[in-house]
Amino acid sequence: FIKAEEYNKLPRPDRLGHGDFVQQYVHTLTGRKATTFLTGRGCPMSCTFCEGAKTPIRWTSLENTKKELDDIQQLGFNAVYIIDDLFTISAEKIKPYTEELKKRGIIYRCNGHAKFMTPEFADLLADTGCVEIGFGAESGSQRILDNIQKRTTIEQNYKFIGFMKSRGIRVKTFLMLGLPGETRETIAETEDFIKGSGIDDFQLTVY
Known about the structure:
By secondary structure, the protein is α/β, with parallel strands linked by helices. The protein contains 8 helices and 10 strands. It has helices spanning 4-7, 19-22, 62-74, 91-104, 119-127, 142-147, 154-165, 184-196, and strands at 9-10, 27-29, 32-37, 40-43, 55-60, 79-82, 107-112, 130-138, 170-177, 201-206. The strands form 2 sheets. It has a 7-stranded mixed beta sheet, with helices on one face. Strands 1-5-4 form a 3-stranded mixed beta sheet. Strand 6 (79-82), helix 4 (91-104) and strand 7 (107-112) form a beta-alpha-beta unit. The chain is globular.
């Protein structure tokens, strides 16, 4: 068995020892050289389509995060894509991490969830260098969201987008077609959501 205090801390990746490999996978974020970055794994939500649902969240320790950000900057990166499934799950939890990014002048993209977003949370993201956020709206139909136990409403999804756009944060959403109960009518609702929600980009998957 793994002790709880060990299980809840992800190891620090050896970026400097694999610098040549890391440099093969360079992305850009608003023109800046960007790389991927992870602060936690797992998701407490219960979406029925997801293999990662109801899994414990394991966080990278703040001390390891500081060292990893030092390594990232040493390799010439000044932007990161935080690839946690749900980075914006708790403002209190992520604030120390976002403050470290702000302190270093590193901008970031992250993933969020409409259920947890508030204007104050959006302010925190904007103030600490978030320039883009992705979130799983999944569908434009409330019936489909209920079927997959998404635990969000269409109204919350629209509010999420509004919070971000009003603070200059670009929004990408992840959508699926073919979820349980899908019909021509629910597909049309998703189409309306794409057209009218104000998103900047979307990724569409056939379930």
